[in-house]
Structures are given as structure tokens and as C-alpha cells.
Amino acid sequence: MAFLLQGRLPVNQDLLLMQKGMSMRKVRSKNWKKLRYFRLQDDGMTVWHARQAGGSAKPSFSISDVETVREGHESELLRSLAEEFPLEQGFTVVFHGRRSNLDLVANSVDEARIWMQGLQLLVDFVTSMDQQEWQDQWLSDWFQRGDKNQDGRMTFQEVQRLLRLMNVEMDQEYAFQLFQTADTSQSGTLEGEEFVQFYKALTKRPEVQEIFENFSADGQKLTLLEFVDFLREEQKEGDHASDLALELIDRYEPSESGKLWHVLSMDGFLSYLCSKDGDIFNPTCRPIYQDMTQPLSHYYINSSHNTYLVGDQLCGQSSVEGYIRALKRGCRCVEVDIWDGPSGEPIVYHGHTLTSRILFKDVVATVAQYAFQTSDYPVILSLENHCSWEQQQIMVQHLTEILGELLLRTTLDGLLPTQLPSPEELRRKVLVKGKKLRTLEEDLEEEEEEEELEPELEGEQEDEPELEAQFESESQKLSPRSKDKKKEKKFKPSLCPSLSALVVYLKSVSFHSFTHSREHYRFYEISSFSETKAKSLIKEAGNEFVQHNVWQLSRVYPSGLRTDSSNYNPQELWNAGCQMVAMNVQTAGLEMDIHDGLFRQNGGCGYVLKPDFLRDAQSSFHPERPISPCKAQTLIIQVISGQQLPKVNKTKEGSIVDPLVRVEIFGIRPDTTYQETNYVENNGFNPYWGQTLCFRVLVPELALLRFVVKDYDWKSRHDFVGQYTLPWTCMKQGEPVLRPLANTPALAAFLTPSSCPFPGYRHIHLLSKDGTSLQPASIFVHICTREGLEGDES
């Protein structure tokens, strides 16, 4: 099956040498460095490894899992081994998601170059693959896995095993019938195109065929006018349906004659429905589409907590990789805890814990390199400064010399502003958040002589007292110098004026009350809240918190008790307009799915404009007692079918999922709910549900939808299969429907023609727990929204 893609793979000497295989050292730590034999498979898409050439090999990684390849000097681990291995012989394979990097050391500079160039060539090729090429590759992967003896053909026994691997339990007689039909050569095996035909028979979509035939006069094709009717009536594309139909036929019809005659075959129709154009996520929300000229306080800002940690909060590893991953996934506010280090160099780590240390200058260099690779909008360095005066001066030196023109050192025009600047005005600028000795007004005044008086420091450290107390208690038990340490803790180092001067628009101040903030604080001052304090304030004074967040920034950070780097649900804080809700981005799960779901829109730039009622200084909105300024909506989702769901238990060949779909809504408290379908027994390949779920939402502007597929288990919690989360406002919307949902007459009385915009038939492409694509796994749905709640007269 490698022939499917080999004809399109670049012909390259490096790839040929990689397919012969080479020995390289796999490096996990300073003490774990083992020789392994790596080989690129003939399909050009997977790399296997063995202990030695000719040994038993197993998959190491797929090219589709690789994000990029870095040179050896960019790896912290390989740099630490520079005396043992020349950096020019090392390189790093960086994977999508949270999978650990793979550090390798080749036997020579030339061999390292061969693998680096060859892998990057393949990564670029995979990135440029179209939908059909992805499908071909997926088929090729399955053929490789099913062809147990690797002879290039599949017997019926191998096909039966493959079906189990593909999450399919099928009647043996029916499976054999499909096998014989596909075996046109009557050889008793399936090769190449025969396997493709077998797969097509296996993946027939009767639910899509029915939709196709409802609009096709001859059941064989959709004419241009028939396709326009479908786009208008079902997909609600409106007046531009005619132009869109021509574009879609040209994009998805596989046959040249079909394109020439402006007709769409069943294959083309299915390709369209499975494409980005048939996705639930509105394509107009993918690029930067929001107004980016409003004050910073009017945006949700993608924020990270203790960004340097890639593990837990107590003993985890500190690494610049934490900053690389956060910035590349769109984080615009990263945190840096700085302490005095040896040799006069400030270090970064989680104070009073056993986490490892990294150099502050390496963190700054990493920010300089990666800050604007994903987004041009400003990056905020949230500094937690614990350094002596001397090392603060070193901090200033690193910030100014390494960041250079990227670092914002004064107001944009040198004048005193009246509100925070906008993301647009701050493009490609790094802002420092931290303590400040004076006000911005005083900084901007021209003074002939520098003030030598040392004002009292304002602001607070966002330390986690529960954690510090725990470690101090332990250290007192263990160390005879605990009394000296207590004295050291009482000493608070002065803030270096040159570091203070780098804080312009983001001066950290202690929060006392909303009244105190209104009366004493300025718009460029920012308060930080623990999640517990912030949630308490929302309950006690939700509307005041909303109004506070219109003119001033708020940062919320996880409780110090979350030593496992777990996360809290950010939605509750977003409901009150809190802009910088900091997450432990290294930890996957529901909370990060919600976080990633919100920031998936607006080009993934890290800034999302808050709803207008959270940008109004006179807003009456209270997140706990909402009297919605917006119109409530009803959502009806018909969960139709699933496609190529992954196995949950990959170690058991015969294990097949029993999938169900759970639809969750997160928003204000009354809107937060879920419903789920029944489970389909033993079918993860093409399960059919055909069930309708109905939701009523008071404040859709704040709502997010999460579609989760789970493997039913009556004995315990259902296992996670895949998910996709998106903002309600980014669902593909349409114009008023002219007729009720097909095959759901029970809804006809409820859905009046004048009141229901239908986004129509959509595929939801599932993501892993880690947030990476599970392509081609998806669920097929029909979605309808209407304004108002059931029974409303409006």
C-alpha cells in the first residue's frame, strides 16, 4: 500500500539512506544514553527502531506526529552533554501535543544532517498533504498493520484481524462476502486497489447516501442546481450558495469530467461534508476576525501558570521547553519565578520546592526566539522577582540586551495614556508585569536629578502560602540553620529602579476591595487572585468584579494546593470578565479542552474579545444571577453517526469500543449541563446513533460546547475516546430554515420555519486527550439553533 503515497513522496538521497537505517544514541538523561538502530520504513511515513541492526523492531514515531526537527544546540539536555557528544552530531525530534521530545546523537555530523534534513522534508510534505492524501496515508497505515507477514497482500485471516484492529465487529459471512467482491483477481488475497475497494465497501455511509439521494434526481450525481438547493435548504448558505456550489465542486469533485460539467458525485459530496467546509467550526472564525483595537482589558488573554514547569509543582522539571510549548500554542502571558543563582546568574524555579533550576537568561532567549512565531500580538512576562539588588541588575541586562527592540520600555508615544493600549498597538512587543517603585505619571515626568529616596514597595508576590509553609516546616526539621533561614525570609530585597522602569502598563498591586481599587488604583495597575479568592469574589460581588474587569486587568492563578499541576475550570472566571486566567498548560484534561476551545478562534492569536456586556463600564451583568442582555437560544443536535473512532485499549487486539456521545455545555451556572446518547455495542468504526439532544441556553455569548466520545463501561467510568470543544458563537450558523429536520417529524411542531437558523449537516473532527488530531475520527451531526426558549412568545 506504500504505492498510494510513494508516487508523491519527494525523491531524495537522504530518505534512501534513512530507509537503509543507521545506529544513533537515544538520550533521555545525563545517565540514560543507549545505542539504537533507527530506520525509516518503506512507506516514508513511519520510523521504527531496534536494539541493533536486524533485531526485533518496533514503531518509534509517525511523521504525522512530528512538529519540527531542531539542531542539537537548541536542546537543554544535549547542551548539558556537550563535552561527551559534539552538539553538531545531535538533533531533537519535537512532537505535537505534550509528548516528550526525542533527543538523538548520530555517529557523525553528516549522518545527523541526513536525518535532520530528511525528517524535516517529510514533515513539510505531510503538512502540505490534502484531504485525499491524508485518506491514502491512513489506508496505507492500516494495510501495514494488517499485513502481518509484510508480503504486500492480505489474506482473509489477516483481514479479520484488521477489522478487530479497526474497531469493527462484523459478521464473518458478510465480511467474507465483501472480501470476495473486492478480490477481482480471484487470488484469495487483497492487493493495492483491491484493498481500497474493500475499504470503500466497509465505509459506505448510508446516512450520507440518503441525504444525497434526497436531492439527486437520478441518485448518481448532484447537478449544480441540485447542489445549490442542498446548500440553501440544509446548510443555510443563503444568497451566495450558487457561487459557493461552483467553488466546492471544483475543490472536492474527484473526476475532471464532473468538474467540467459542474456536477458532484457521491464521493465528491462525502469529501465536502468531511472537509473544513463541512466542519462545525465556522470558517469565518478561524482567521483573526475580531476588532483588535480595543484596550487590553477588553480581551481574554491566553495565560500560563508557572510556565517553566513541565511536570508537577513540587519535584517537576523546569525547562525552557515549557515556554516554547506555551508560546507555540498561543499563550500570550507566561510566568517567570526568578531567584538568586550561583555565579551571579539569576535562576528560574518554583521557590521552596525541589523543582530543578534553569537560567533566567535562557528563558529570556527562548521568549525572544518564540514569542511571535504563532501570533504577532503582545507577550506579557509576569515576573515574580525574589532576587537581590545585584541580580536584579543582571535581569535588566538580559531583558534589554536579549529582547532588544521587542521589549516595551516606555509608553507607546511617550505621553501619559488615559486607558490601556490595544493588542494592535502593541504588536510584536514584550511587556513586563511586576512591581514598580513609582507611578507611570512620575516615570514620565522630566526630572533633573534622580530621586535617591527608596519608596515603599507596592504589590504582592503570588506565592502559594500553603506550599511555602509546608516546605519551611520540613526544612526546619532537617536543617540546623533554620533560624538563619527565618531571618533571611524576613529580609525583603529592595526593587532595583532599572527593573522597576521596565514595568510600564502592568504594575502589580495588592487587591483590597473593589471600592479601594476604584478610589486608589489606576488603569495600568493589575491585581492577581488565587482561584479560591476570585471565585469567592464572584459570588459576593459578581457585578462589581465584571465592572472592575472593564477598566483594569485581573490575573487568576491556580491554588497552591494543586501540587500535581491539575487545573481549575476557567469558565467561571471568564464569566466575570477576568482576562488572564492562568492554566497549567502541561496538564491535559477537561479544563484545558475548555481553555483551548475558547482560544481556537480569532486565528489562535491568544486574544479573544469579550462580549459587549463585559466591556461596558455600566454593565449590570452578574455571572451568578444573570439577567441576560442578550437573547437566549435553543440548540437541537441530532447526533447521527461516528467514523473510524480509535481503540481505547490498544494492547488488547480483540477489544472493541462501545461508543456513546456526550454533549456538554459550559457557561454561566444555569447553562452548564450535559446530555448523552445511548451506546452502540462493539462498533467504533461506523457507529450509528440517530438521537436528538436539546439544550436551552440563557447567555450563548459565554457558552462553549464540548463533544466527547466515550467507551461505555458499566463497571466503571466510561473511557475517553476523543473530544472537540468550540465557542457557541463559532458554530457554523445559517439563515432561517424553510422546513423541519429530515427524519425528525417530532420536532416539526417545535421548530417553526421563521424561527430556526440551521447550521445543517456538520462533521466534528475529534482530538485526543492531548489536543492532537485523531484524523480521520469524527462524528456526524445535524445542528439547529433558534432564538428564545421553548414556550417563549418572542
Automatic annotation (TrEMBL):
| KW Repeat (keyword) present | yes
Q: Which SMART domains match?
A: C2, EFh, PH, PLCXc, PLCYc
A Pfam family matched by this chain, by name?
A: PI-PLC-Y
- Family matches, as PROSITE patterns: C2, EF_HAND_1, EF_HAND_2, PH_DOMAIN, PIPLC_X_DOMAIN, PIPLC_Y_DOMAIN
Biased amino acid composition, Acidic residues: 442-471
Positions of the UniProt region annotated as Disordered = 441-490
Q: What is the membrane topology noted in the UniProt record heading this document?
A: Peripheral membrane protein
Annotated EF-hand domain residues: 134-169, 170-205
Query: Where's the PI-PLC Y-box domain?
Result: 499-615
Q: Which reaction does it catalyse?
A: a 1,2-diacyl-sn-glycero-3-phospho-(1D-myo-inositol-4,5-bisphosphate) + H2O = 1D-myo-inositol 1,4,5-trisphosphate + a 1,2-diacyl-sn-glycerol + H(+); a 1,2-diacyl-sn-glycero-3-phospho-(1D-myo-inositol) + H2O = 1D-myo-inositol 1-phosphate + a 1,2-diacyl-sn-glycerol + H(+)
Give start and end of each C2 domain: 615-741
Record keywords: Calcium, Cytoplasm, Endoplasmic reticulum, Hydrolase, Lipid degradation, Lipid metabolism, Membrane, Metal-binding, Nucleus, Repeat, Transducer
The EC number(s) given in the record are 3.1.4.11
SUPFAM superfamilies tied to this protein: C2 domain (Calcium/lipid-binding domain, CaLB), EF-hand, PH domain-like, PLC-like phosphodiesterases
Q: Where in the cell is it found?
A: Cytoplasm; Endoplasmic reticulum; Membrane; Nucleus
Which coenzymes or cofactors are required? Ca(2+)
| InterPro entries, per the entry | C2_dom, C2_domain_sf, EF-hand-dom_pair, EF_Hand_1_Ca_BS, EF_hand_dom, PH-like_dom_sf, PH_domain, PI-PLC_fam
EC main class here is: hydrolase
Domain PH per the UniProt entry, residue ranges: 16-124
Instruction: Give a short account of what the protein does.
Output: Hydrolyzes the phosphatidylinositol 4,5-bisphosphate (PIP2) to generate 2 second messenger molecules diacylglycerol (DAG) and inositol 1,4,5-trisphosphate (IP3). DAG mediates the activation of protein kinase C (PKC), while IP3 releases Ca(2+) from intracellular stores. Required for acrosome reaction in sperm during fertilization, probably by acting as an important enzyme for intracellular Ca(2+) mobilization in the zona pellucida-induced acrosome reaction. May play a role in cell growth. Modulates the liver regeneration in cooperation with nuclear PKC.
What protein am I looking at? Phosphoinositide phospholipase C
Q: Which gene is annotated as encoding this protein in its UniProt record?
A: PLCD4
